[in-house]
């Protein structure tokens, strides 16, 4: 049985819980797996640390809290610092590169300027959707079609197109990053032979 | 028997130098030798005076073979004739190869007056060889017909572009590159003369052919009279034969484009493709290269441009993003130059052949690197009522799309750069930003715009291979001076023709090194420095 434990963390108001919900919902309703969501909110939604814990599994999930995340997506330094040591050795660490400085981190991680990209698109609040796209491309926790569908259904009416654009932006960035790593690994970093 | 008939039907043009070889030919005639009937002899003063345009012209008109016979090396009465003939023949043969006509259809030989038998043997041998290749697939292109009532047609054109809206304000003349270069030339005066029914006036006609169609007048016109397209349509009325006297380079490029209108012609457009470039006939993306391969061959000896690099590097950039495009072996000229020199009929033929070939390839997206080709595909094909079952993207748009996905960076470039706008992209398509966005991503020492840039940029001096004169030259010199004034050492371009024309001005022996500046297509600059991060 394959089980994925995911923590998405950031400031309150960044849409962290919504991001967790989209991810879990895409996995369950879209990909027909099991998923759970634990959200920590309260004072966080007025700012401060916030996190969403998602478990995605092929079989029944008996315990909904994350013990050792396979995926950590951090959109704030505090969140990153809190969870980074818990991530499994083969797990993925994803960060918003402008909000998180992975000081002293000696393992591989994936960085995306999600907030900056969202600002370029005209709405800073879409950073979470960009991060969802990035997570989907890099970790394949949920499938592209299911996640895109869920994004469309989860965002306020009238903003679907914009959010899909943000999602693609994050997704393309993720794919591009993976491609860049492949190319560099195979020694073809440039265009000229 | 059929074979013999086919051989008899061959048409061979023989350019014969009137010094040595013609004497040999006369001896054959005097001795009543049977000169093969397929041979049509043209007596010329020197083999070196038969330009590439002249060597090629018979092929446009359906000849199966051309032989240029001069005097042997060292025997030329004028000194350099033999060497020039050798160069011209070698270049034209390469062009025949690109076209898929086979280089074997063109031969250069030398015979002295003492060797009539050698000449006769040569002719028989040549006919045998051409017979093995077969008849030329080129059908003589049709000549545009004069409209029955040209006055009414002109009136229609004036109405179509609403030239009546001209307020005679003179903003066009104050912006026109030609006028500013000192030519006695005024777009508004010409427009008013045509409205006044004076299109028959030789001076008006001359002016119609002199226009660069660069579009700066349209950019400035408060009444939005699309002057370039007006001129284009008027030229179609004036064009009554293949020649109008304004063609540059002996009309070679017009000949070339018209030759490509033969549907049977199967080109070998990509026979120079380096091995490191990956292509895939099953791809959904097609790369349309344009005429750069011909430019490099044609101007090899004089200007040595490197316009082919823009194609190679565009392809390398596509490969960099894992796009392995389809290349059409029988890709034809897009027809831009024919359209803008009044030959609408042959333009349409080329357009249809290109669209048909691309549709057959199954491509869903066509990427074009040439600004003229891009305009022609995006604007002129649809305006001519032709439907394209694919979308057309300029290479700059493609690059912007891919690079903005992230993880792509640029290595530092050890150059101070400046940029030459192409009229087709910057003005006609209003895409001044597309190249600049890409340039902003590069990491040169510095990027400085020239005094006139963007939509107000100065033209490279020519359009559609016509109307080249001393004012074109003045324009080019002015432009290069502006480039030098930026203190830059690399002039980045987006159009192969800008490169050819500006390089021409750099050959001036009087200005010498004053005007020299390294030039490179934007795609080449990018291919050199792009890298995954």
TrEMBL record, chain A:
Keywords from the UniProt entry: Oxidoreductase
Superkingdom per UniProt: Bacteria
Record-linked SUPFAM superfamilies: Pyruvate-ferredoxin oxidoreductase, PFOR, domain III
Entry-linked InterPro entries: 2-oxoglutarate_synth_KorC, Pyrv/ketoisovalerate_OxRed_cat, Pyrv_flavodox_OxRed_cen
Pyruvate/ketoisovalerate oxidoreductase catalytic domain mapped to chain residues: 12-172
GO molecular function: oxidoreductase activity, acting on the aldehyde or oxo group of donors
Pfam family, one: POR
Protein name per Swiss-Prot or TrEMBL: 2-oxoglutarate ferredoxin oxidoreductase, gamma subunit
TrEMBL record, chain B:
Keywords in alphabetical order: 4Fe-4S, Iron, Iron-sulfur, Metal-binding, Oxidoreductase
GO molecular function list: 4 iron, 4 sulfur cluster binding; metal ion binding; oxidoreductase activity
GO cellular component: plasma membrane
InterPro entries: 4Fe4S_Fe-S-bd, 4Fe4S_Fe_S_CS, Cys_rich_dom, HdrC_iron-sulfur_subunit, Helical_ferredxn, MvhD/FlpD
Top-rank taxon, per record: Bacteria
Record has Iron-sulfur as a keyword: yes
PROSITE patterns in alphabetical order: 4FE4S_FER_1 (PS00198), 4FE4S_FER_2 (PS51379)
Domain spans labelled 4Fe-4S ferredoxin-type: 200-230
Protein name according to UniProt: Fe-S oxidoreductase
Species classification: Bacteria, Pseudomonadati, Thermodesulfobacteriota, Desulfobacteria, Desulfobacterales
């Amino acid at each position: 049985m394959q089980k994925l434990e995911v923590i998405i963390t950031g400031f309150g108001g960044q849409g962290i819980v919504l991001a967790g919900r989209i991810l879990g919902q895409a996995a369950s309703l879209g990909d027909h797996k099991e998923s759970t969501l634990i959200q920590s909110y309260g004072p966080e939604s007025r700012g401060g640390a916030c996190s969403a814990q998602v478990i995605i599994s092929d079989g029944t999930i008996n315990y909904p809290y994350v013990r050792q995340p396979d995926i950590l997506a951090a959109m704030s330094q505090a969140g990153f610092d809190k969870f980074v040591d818990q991530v499994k050795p083969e797990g993925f660490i994803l960060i918003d590169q402008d909000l998180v400085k992975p000081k002293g981190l000696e393992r591989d991680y994936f960085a995306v300027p999600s907030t900056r990209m969202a600002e370029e698109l005209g709405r800073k609040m879409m950073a979470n959707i960009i991060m969802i796209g990035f997570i989907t491309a890099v970790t394949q926790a949920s499938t592209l079609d299911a996640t895109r569908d869920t994004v469309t259904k989860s965002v306020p009416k009238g903003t679907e197109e914009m959010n899909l654009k943000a999602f693609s932006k994050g997704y393309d960035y993720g794919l591009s990053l993976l491609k860049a790593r492949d190319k560099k690994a195979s020694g073809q970093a440039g265009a000229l032979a | 028997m059929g074979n013999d008939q086919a051989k008899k039907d061959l048409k061979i043009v023989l350019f014969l130098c009137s010094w040595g070889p013609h004497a040999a030919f006369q001896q054959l005639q005097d001795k009543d030798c049977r000169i093969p009937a397929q041979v049509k002899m043209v007596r010329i003063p020197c083999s070196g005076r038969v330009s590439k345009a002249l060597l090629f012209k018979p092929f446009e008109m359906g000849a199966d073979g051309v032989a240029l016979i001069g005097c042997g090396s060292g025997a030329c009465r004028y000194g350099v004739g033999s060497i020039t003939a050798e160069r011209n023949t070698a270049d034209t043969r390469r062009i025949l190869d690109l076209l898929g006509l086979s280089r074997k259809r063109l031969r250069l030989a030398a015979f002295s007056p003492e060797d009539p038998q050698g000449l006769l043997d040569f002719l028989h041998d040549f006919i045998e060889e051409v017979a093995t290749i077969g008849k030329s697939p080129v059908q003589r292109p049709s000549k545009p017909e004069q409209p029955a009532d040209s006055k009414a047609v002109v009136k229609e054109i004036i109405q179509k572009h609403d030239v009546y809206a001209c307020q005679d304000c003179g903003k066009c003349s104050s912006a026109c590159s030609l006028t500013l270069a000192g030519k006695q030339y005024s777009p508004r005066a010409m427009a008013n003369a045509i409205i006044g029914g004076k299109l028959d006036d030789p001076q008006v006609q001359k002016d119609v052919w002199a226009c660069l169609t660069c579009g700066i007048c349209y950019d400035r016109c408060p009444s939005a009279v699309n002057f370039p397209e007006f001129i284009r349509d008027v030229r179609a009325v004036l064009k009554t034969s293949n020649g109008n006297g304004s063609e540059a380079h002996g009309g070679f490029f017009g000949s070339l484009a018209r030759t490509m209108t033969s549907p049977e012609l199967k080109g070998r457009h990509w026979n120079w493709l380096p091995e490191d470039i990956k292509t895939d006939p099953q791809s959904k993306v097609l790369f349309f290269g344009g005429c750069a391969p011909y430019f490099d061959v044609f101007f090899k000896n004089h200007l040595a441009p490197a316009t082919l690099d823009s194609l190679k590097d565009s392809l390398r950039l596509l490969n960099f993003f894992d796009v392995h495009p389809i290349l059409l072996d029988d890709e034809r000229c897009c027809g831009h130059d024919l359209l803008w020199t009044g030959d609408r009929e042959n333009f349409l033929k080329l357009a249809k052949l290109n669209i048909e070939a691309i549709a057959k390839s199954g491509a869903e997206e066509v990427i074009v690197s040439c600004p003229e080709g891009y305009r022609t595909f995006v604007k002129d094909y649809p305006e001519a009522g032709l439907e394209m079952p694919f979308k057309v993207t300029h290479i700059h748009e493609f690059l912007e799309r891919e690079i903005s996905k992230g993880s792509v960076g640029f290595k530092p470039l050890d150059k101070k750069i400046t940029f030459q706008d192409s009229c087709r992209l910057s003005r006609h398509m209003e895409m001044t930003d597309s190249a600049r966005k890409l340039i902003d991503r590069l990491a040169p020492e510095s990027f400085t715009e020239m005094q006139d840039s963007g939509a107000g940029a100065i033209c490279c001096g020519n359009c559609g291979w016509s109307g080249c004169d001393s004012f074109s030259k003045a324009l080019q010199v002015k432009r290069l001076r502006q480039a030098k004034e930026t203190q830059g050492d690399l002039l980045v371009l987006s159009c192969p023709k800008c490169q050819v024309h500006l390089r021409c001005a750099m050959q001036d022996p009087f200005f010498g090194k004053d005007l020299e500046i390294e030039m490179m297509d934007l795609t080449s600059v990018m291919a050199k420095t792009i890298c995954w991060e």
